[in-house]
Amino acid sequence: MQMGIQDQKRQQRNVERFKARLVAKGYTQREGIDFTETFSLVSTKDSFRLIMVLVAHFDLELHQMDVKTTFLNENKFDQCVYMKVNGSKYIFMVLYIDEILLASSDMNLLNDTKSILSTNFNMKDLGEASFVLGIEIYRDRSRNLLGLSQRAYINRVLKRFNMQTCKAGDIFMNPRHDHWVAAKKVMRYLQRTKDFMLVYRRVDNLEVVGYSDSDFGCCSNDHKSTLGYIFMLAGGAISWKSVKHSLIASSTMYAEFVACYGASSQAVWLEIYFRVASC
């Protein structure tokens, strides 16, 4: 038996409470005999950002709840994002392990949903959402603005590596000079941009705009290309990716088509998501 202790953090990463989980020699289990695969049912960050866009655009009520006991009733066929429509009222529910995010057009529907969840599961109502998945949520409802910030997380990373002032202390390692320079550049970038945030706002037309691009064989080790895409909605980025190709492109056109395919696949997913959400 092994007891695992985890601190539950909320606003500004302050510890709110501690959670314990008893593990009964899980390390002795063998894949294919004791289990086939392990998974944790969570929503994607893209789904989370899309819901935040809807919250900003339609000025939805945004609350969160915490499940005190997780994984006991989990099913791999369960969904991570739910939507309930009651006449002209509607509510979204986003699941991420033991955190639940509720976004609703009506306060009464929101309270009814909370009551149903609390009746069937051991849950804690955390009120209006302001810190979810390590992301701080800022709202200016008078201007229909919603911002997502990771300042608290960045500060924690800088403190961990003693780079709050971007001057690292002595460490018991001897990295190569180029590695050390690259690492410090990352820390300086984080320090310089930690107050930046993704901002979504009400717009006249909710239209997704996407861009894709690719270099051509710029990796000196295997001559593979790197693709990237980004999708924008309501004034902010909702989905993005940068990844090396799994193949070697024979031309710039080939590399661009591979990047376009990756972006197109994501565009199809976004289209399906919005079509379902608008039902």
From TrEMBL:
SUPFAM superfamilies: DNA/RNA polymerases
Domain Reverse transcriptase Ty1/copia-type: 77-169
InterPro entries per UniProt: DNA/RNA_pol_sf, RVT_2
Domain of life (superkingdom): Eukaryota
Pfam family, one: RVT_2
CDD domains: RNase_HI_RT_Ty1 (cd09272)
The name this protein goes by in its record: Copia protein
Gene: GIP_0
